DNA sequence: GTCTATATTCGGATAGAC
DNA sequence: GTCTATCCGAATATAGAC
């Protein structure tokens, strides 16, 4: 593994753990195990390195959200719940969302654009899945996809905040359970006559218990 | 206004804007308009000043959440929605929640305890209001107050994250609208026979699930 | 390409005058 | 109580040797 990749990997970790402002070039070089000259040879400076590292992280997060549009994974509502239930290390926080609280990250146009793009991608996938769920009669027609997409995305992001505040994974899991329960109750309120015709099985087999 | 109060006010603002790690004693003194000697006379150092300032902020936030238990403000569900709809400056972020992303704040036992206490107070009020809503038949008996409290608290905290990510208030408002809509739909799904504890009818058919 | 040495500024705090 | 002067180390980067 070349020095360049070692540096971006180390920077990605440190951005996650400490954020941009609190990460010094020294820290990165030490963790990457390369000398100072290597870093300034491959990158113009801390900023340049952060842009490269955060871009890579943003890509992997976008991939994760593809569960929402994976038709193989079940009905739209099932995919929404599956995405909500993906394992998330609450006490470590979100690698992208964390940046929004870093004053320098928000100010920096390059970093801000990366964060904004990551959220735009995820929200777009949420909206598509929600609209599909409405079309399939899994959610009532009164649901506004753009609103609910932000609500559910906020539950995840807020779950990270709560988990970090308490230093415990439990609040994150509880927040997700509560959101799934709201979705189930909302789904149950759909007028049966509006349901999609190609999934005409009995209702009531969706009650999967989570402890 | 004495130097001490000027310092805590300035520190509170800077903690909000930049967090703990990114705020230097110099910044605080400059904004407060006092000399360096004054600061080290009234406080042992940056840490001591931050503890005093954050404690004050935590108190005002707890006061705000008292809407949830203000019986004058309406039914439990109405109070929940009223609290969700309180005006919140999304792009500025939450004064308490922001601390959870500051590496030094989470590490520091004193600061961490303040943040943890603020969330504990708020979550407790949420749980009480939700339990009251269930008791009043405004929400179904299947609702788990501890879970839903964290879900709704997460919507608010996540709303801040989304708003900051996009540099726009709109995502915060959308997230709140979506949450209120979910609550309304869930409320509508309550079995009418379980409503209004003043005129209690037979209960117990909630166990059969939502079919 | 990678290293060590060196500048420069800032963060955080102390000392002591007024 | 409040101020200015000053110290020490870290953050960020440049210079130039190997």
Architecture blueprint of SSEs:
2 copies of one chain form a homodimer.
Chain A: H1 3-18, H2 25-32, H3 36-42, H4 46-64, H5 76-84, H6 103-107, H7 109-135, H8 145-166, H9 170-188
Helix pairs in contact in A: 1-2, 1-4, 4-7, 5-7, 7-8, 8-9
The structure holds a DNA duplex (18 and 18 nucleotides).
Short description:
Chains A, B: Residues 193-211 have a biased composition (Basic and acidic residues). 2 copies of one chain form a homodimer. The first copy, chain A, contains 9 helices and no strands.
What would you note in describing this structure?
The structure is a homodimer of 211-residue chains. By secondary structure, chain A is mainly α. Chain A has a single domain (3-191), classed as Tetracycline Repressor, domain 2 (Orthogonal Bundle), CATH 1.10.357. Helices cover 63% and strands 0% of the residues of chain A. Chain A has helices spanning 3-18, 25-32, 36-42, 46-64, 76-84, 103-107, 109-135, 145-166, 170-188. In chain A, helix 1 (3-18) crosses helix 2 and helix 7 crosses helix 8 (145-166). The longest helix of chain A is centred in the middle third of the chain and has 27 residues, at 109-135. Chain A is elongated and about 70 Å long. The termini of chain A are far apart. The model of chain A is unreliable at 197-211 (pLDDT under 50). At the A-B interface, helix 6, helix 7, helix 8 and helix 9 of A face helix 6, helix 7, helix 8 and helix 9 of B. The structure holds a DNA duplex (18 and 18 nucleotides).
